[in-house]
Amino acid sequence: MSRLEFPEATRVRHGAKAPVIALAGGALLLVSGLLSWSYDDRILGDISIRFYPAGIQVYAMVLGAVAIVLGVLLLRRPPWLDPGRGLRMLGVGSLVVVVVALVAIAAQTGGLINANEGVWIALVGALAVAVSGRLTPAVEVDVRTWPRLSSTVEILLIAALMAVVLFVTAYTLGLDDAGTFGCLLATLITLVVAAAAAGLGDYVGFIGANNRRVLILAAFVVAFLFPFTQNGSSANMSIATQILIFAGTALGLNIVVGLAGLLDLGYIAFLGTGAYVGAMLSQSAFATVGWKPPFVIVMLCGMTVAAIFGLIIGSPTLRVSGDYLAIVTLGFGEIFRLAMFNLDGNNGPDLTNGPNGIPGIPDLNFFGFDFGETHTLLGVPLDKFSNYYFLLLAFLAFVILVFVRLNNSRLGRGWVAIREDERAAEAMGVNTFGLKLLAFAVGASLAGLAGTIKAHVDTSVTPDQYIFLESAFLLAAVVLGGMGTVTGVLVGATILKLLPEKLRQVNEYRLLAFGLLLVLMMRFRPEGLVPSKRRQLEFHQQDEALSDLAEAEHLQEAK
Amino acid sequence: MTVTENAQGAHEVGEKVILEASNVTMRFGGLTAVADVSMQVHDGEIVGLIGPNGAGKTTFFNCLTGMYIPTEGRVTLNGEELPPKPLKVVQAGMARTFQNIRLFANMTALENVMVGRYCRTTSKALTSVLRGPKFRREEDATISRARELLEYVGLGDSAEHLARNLPYGDQRRLEIARALATDPYVLLLDEPTAGMNPRETEETMNLIFKIREGGLAVVVIEHDMRFIFNLCDRVLCLVRGEVLVEGTPSEVQSDHRVIEAYIGGDDETEEDE
Prior knowledge:
The complex is a heterodimer.
Chain A: H1 8-14, H2 18-34, H3 56-76, H4 83-109, H5 117-135, H6 151-174, H7 178-197, H8 200-210, H9 212-225, H10 234-259, H11 268-280, H12 295-317, H13 323-342, E1 365-366, E2 369-370, E3 375-377, E4 380-382, H14 384-407, H15 410-420, H16 422-427, H17 432-458, H18 468-481, H19 486-502, H20 510-524, H21 533-539, H22 544-558
Helix pairs in contact in A: 2-3, 2-5, 3-4, 3-7, 4-5, 4-7, 6-9, 10-14, 10-17, 10-18, 10-19, 11-12, 11-13, 11-17, 12-17, 14-17, 15-17, 18-19
Chain B: E1 2-6, E2 9-13, E3 17-28, E4 31-42, E5 46-50, H1 57-64, E6 72-77, E7 80-81, H2 86-92, E8 94-96, H3 109-116, H4 125-130, H5 133-152, H6 168-180, E9 186-190, H7 198-213, E10 217-221, H8 225-231, E11 234-239, E12 242-247, H9 249-254, H10 256-263
Parallel strand pairs in B: 5-10, 5-11, 8-9, 9-10
Antiparallel strand pairs in B: 1-2, 3-4, 3-6, 6-7, 11-12
Helix pairs in contact in B: 3-5, 3-6, 5-6
């Protein structure tokens, strides 16, 4: 961290000025939001009018307000927070936001001359915040002095947090301007990182751990309410359904990779298996199987067939491990795709219609409830994708339930033991081969279940949906979010599915950005965005404060 | 009943043979690491295994526990032949610790011991997801048994600490607790006091006596001679894969061949794990 700070002597000498500079910087950011940022009123929303903040001006004001809060905290110095670190991150982030805005103004209007006084004041403010953060001496955060709130207050806090999440999500998805979207993204990341750096993240995690059930319930309520904010528009709901499918599948993969530590690079094949089963047993005119069972049966079939595939692949390949396993599973993924490509009647039985796939899969119909039609609930129209969204939400809840309960059981402990030291696990009586096979089968069946629903959401199933790149993306979601955790994988899956959709203007650089993101992650946060404490320790072995924190939380949970 | 003398005073060793290794030989290519070793362990007996580095002690342990498949010979536990699979060996009732500690470093002490209960519990995937009363009962029993064992080895206060953060001596004791969690008849300890200070060694010795009082037979590999001769009822000295001397501590202690093997044995190879 020393690279981010001034020399110790400077910090001690000028440390007292830090809060004042922070407050001034925050005030400048606040004021800048009220001023004009550009002469041109056609870019980044309309940021040319004074005393009428819009888009990025509001973000600057939010950043300023947070800087002022942190500045005040810096004056009061609670022992469980490190506002200096928070200010440092906030300052750097604010600088990024303002610079991005400047670049966008210059690029879209033809020169820096079009930037007005507001953006320059914001730049000075952001700089001041960054300097104040760098001036504060390092603080030892004492997690034992976390303020204890009454449970009602804690629950209200969670509810408020969730409401903010819902509002921000709906707002973010409503944006269609890439420049503003980029600034918002930078703002949100800055706020989250600054809060985490100041020690608020751990505290919120602590409150969350105290009210686990409330937190989970609140998260699901927010997810459930999301379609009601979209007012029948299907653009975002379509993305949301894809995110849910992706997240559910990634959670299945998380059992295999995150818990049991088996690297599977062909996991998409199991999603494909489920999708093909769903398509073949559907009412589609192109379905190759005559049997048309109700969808519940189809789901069970999809799970079973995928699980059987998992066992077939697992029983010979699980004798190898590490890199070898990765290569074998990668091969299996390709075999699956090519087999689906070729089972067209010319080279074997006609099961999949070859490269044409199975199109025209009709919408689901549960007891007369047609998923394809728009239904109106409480005056809000809910379109096809919203209907599937609710179904997929139930599916995701099921996957999370399976994941969490398996993780906290004899089997989950066995998996983690295998990941930690396979030989020792076996010598302690853990049935390593059987457990690894079980991980494969359970993971595969969850992906298969996702596939049967996906077939209906997409209305067609073709082999080219199940290429290696998709397996890589699933694995990236797990690694990016944090192996072995639920929240992390949900976050990772959302980011990986949402960003490409929202950044369509820079579509050709999508994979480049993705690669860059992964490299940066591996450099700065190898344990993932929302890591399990175990993983975090693996990557930061020397960090004693971290071990203490992990132990403090374990002790807290035990009480 | 044979009566033996050791630091704890007189102790009765049962007549019944619990563990029997007959003519175990282990060859790695041209190298014979263990040559025709036979050993009997009786009910409630503490047997010591000594020998210079590379004598094949750990290899012999690996043969007993199924981690290696012996080239020749057989191992029986309670009269039944043990298949050379670690899993089956644990299920049959023989558990071990490792010379270089092999705990699940990123799991808590409690979780480590709970993993040891794995082979004595039966919850399947479906019951784990459904969480019926049977699952809860078994889980509660696992937790309370694991806590009990942590208390037993003196780690009651460290249950929620990560195994990696425990002091060295505690890690060795946690390994013993984890092995005990598999409900063994025989406990194999591979250098349980390596790296310990005299006080910790003393504590470990008392712990092993306590384990024996609980009805288990114990086999110990150790280089600390005072520890071995105070602890064991019977000692085997292995040199170059063969049993050189077998007898009571006092017999082995005074045997000139043992002394020669240790002092004059500078042509040993470093094969031991």
